[in-house]
From TrEMBL:
This is Uncharacterized protein.
Length: 387
């Protein structure tokens, strides 16, 4: 039998596997350790594959002694520094590529918390007491300490309400409108923005993984990254590393025009609604869906129907993954490129004569979608009582 020389990293993985025998297989620690081992194995495999492609341009042995001239010693130390810098950069690149692939995630095992939230809703209302927009805004500020955006619309007004994540929060806010003899029958949802947040994320590349896997209608368009500039179109970068450069520079991902009936937004959230920095433990990666009036009207946009609007709206934030049976060429494409792989296609039938809208080798991400569904149902419990 031939001896096989294992790298130190593989030897450490083997030791961790041996250690699993000491853990109760029904304990949560066993599952978490297995996922950690699988992730590290994927990382080492990617690192090995990448190393085969890198030419060796620097001597692997650097030596110096007390007789080494000062200039030569400086050159040697500079070379050593460059080697470490290149290795560190390569490790970061490997990590980015791995975290840019949704198939490498086990959200539960990686302790990533998923939470559904209502970012804001725009509520139309009419009043019987003669008052101006300024009167209403001033009164609400005095009563709540919160400055509201209010605009005039038809016979009434539209108010934007942020972070209304329970019927109790909503009722406490809109009760102040009774001061102006508000007609509660007039309440209509004019626009709503829903969010799924990923707390305790491991890497910003999760934004890339979510973009590549998010379920989108076949009509989705205008895929772009953006920052602060308006009127400037920057297409989605073609590779995970190029995308990471954008994400680290504060860019967001947008899908569809911002004024479209439906609009998706993926980004790292590090500030609150007033652009004030959040403490780091509140940072999260956010997947948002904005829904405008044309779509809401089809759902019945009366405020009394809010729970149903939320239920149907959150259906627009779900994800896919690459099938394990995908050929290696497809796996390479999925790993190395950035495309909206979860975008619906024209209806076709697979080999089993099942009707499909996702492209070949792409399937729904059952585990992640189940986590999202659970947190959405937890949110909906907060809206159990009619407005």
């Amino acid at each position: 039998m031939n001896d096989i020389q294992l790298s130190l990293e593989y030897q450490q993985l083997m030791n961790r596997l041996d250690h699993l025998d000491l853990i109760d297989p029904f304990h949560d620690d066993y599952y978490a350790e297995m996922q950690a081992i699988n992730f590290q194995r994927a990382f080492i495999k990617a690192q090995s594959e990448r190393q085969l492609l890198l030419p060796s341009t620097t001597s692997q042995v650097l030596s110096l002694s007390i007789y080494t001239p000062h200039d030569e010693m400086i050159d040697l130390m500079d070379s050593l520094t460059q080697i470490y810098a290149k290795n560190a950069q390569s490790a970061e690149d490997f990590e980015t590529i791995i975290y840019s692939n949704i198939n490498n995630y086990d959200f539960k095992g990686m302790n990533i918390m998923v939470k559904a939230q209502v970012d804001f809703l725009d509520l139309y209302f009419e009043i019987e007491k003669s008052s101006t927009r300024h009167d209403i805004k001033k009164y609400l500020t005095e009563k709540t300490g919160i400055t509201h955006y209010i605009s005039e619309h038809k016979k009434g007004f539209i108010i934007r309400l942020h972070d209304m994540n329970s019927i109790d929060q909503l009722q406490r806010r809109i009760k102040h409108l009774d001061h102006f003899k508000c007609n509660r029958e007039s309440f209509r949802i004019m626009e709503i923005e829903l969010a799924v947040d990923f707390y305790r994320f491991k890497h910003r590349a999760l934004v890339t993984a979510l973009f590549k896997s998010i379920c989108l209608p076949s009509t989705a368009e205008n895929f772009r990254v953006f920052k602060n500039q308006s009127g400037v179109f920057t297409p989605i970068p073609l590779t995970p590393l190029a995308m990471m450069n954008k994400l680290e520079s504060g860019y967001n991902i947008g899908i569809n025009h911002k004024k479209a009936d439906e609009y998706w937004h993926l980004y790292v959230k590090t500030t609150d609604q007033n652009k004030q920095p959040l403490p780091e433990y509140k940072w999260r990666i956010r997947a948002e869906k904005n829904i405008k009036l044309n779509v809401l009207n089809k759902m019945d946009n009366r405020l009394t129907n809010l729970k149903r609007v939320l239920f149907d709206g959150f259906k627009g934030i779900s994800f896919t993954q690459l099938m394990n049976s995908a050929p290696q060429s497809m796996k390479d494409t999925y790993k190395e490129s950035i495309q909206p792989f979860g975008m619906e296609q024209e209806i076709y039938y697979d080999k089993s004569r099942h009707k499909r809208t996702l492209q070949k080798y792409i399937e729904k991400n059952a585990d992640l979608n189940r986590l999202i569904s659970n947190t959405v149902h937890n949110l909906l419990r907060n809206f159990a009582i009619s407005v």
